[in-house]
Amino acid sequence: MTIADMVAVLNAKVLVGGDKLDTPVYTACCSDLMSDVLAFVDEKTVLITGLTNPHVVRTSEMLDLKCLVFARGKIPTDDILQSADDQGLVVLATKLTAFSACGVLYEMGLRGVPVPVQWDQEDK
């Protein structure tokens, strides 16, 4: 799947990085807790979130993410978009909830970031 494919299936608006829509994506992460993203994401991926503060862009920069998708029609401020553009991120906005956006992308073949969690038999 490419970011252009994501734009189409999410009926998303491209806010930044329209020249990078041919970039392939293989995994996604959905969270409003940037500490979870930092703890569990270790590959270039897509972040789906409803959080529109500068921490999202900083987290994306630290992890070298490919794309940010803001859910629920949220649009970050111009300074946040400028920061994302400066680091080469693609930024999209969709009117879908984060849950629905994840479902649509999963249906199209995009998978979640693998999380190395080990459960004991008793924990199941």
Plain-language structure description:
This protein is of the alpha/beta class and 124 residues long. The protein has a single domain, classed as 3-Layer(aba) Sandwich (Udp-n-acetylmuramoylalanyl-d-glutamate--2,6- Diaminopimelate Ligase, Chain: A, domain 1). The chain is 35% helix and 18% strand. It has five helices and six strands. The chain has a six-stranded mixed beta sheet, with helices on both faces. Strand 4, helix 4 and strand 5 form a beta-alpha-beta unit. The radius of gyration is 14 Å and the shape is globular. The N and C termini lie far apart (33 Å). The mean pLDDT is 90.
Strand and helix map with partners:
Elements: H1 3-10, E1 13-16, E2 27-30, H2 34-40, E3 46-49, H3 54-63, E4 67-70, H4 78-86, E5 90-93, H5 98-107, E6 111-112
Parallel strand pairs: 2-3, 2-6, 3-4, 4-5
Antiparallel strand pairs: 1-5
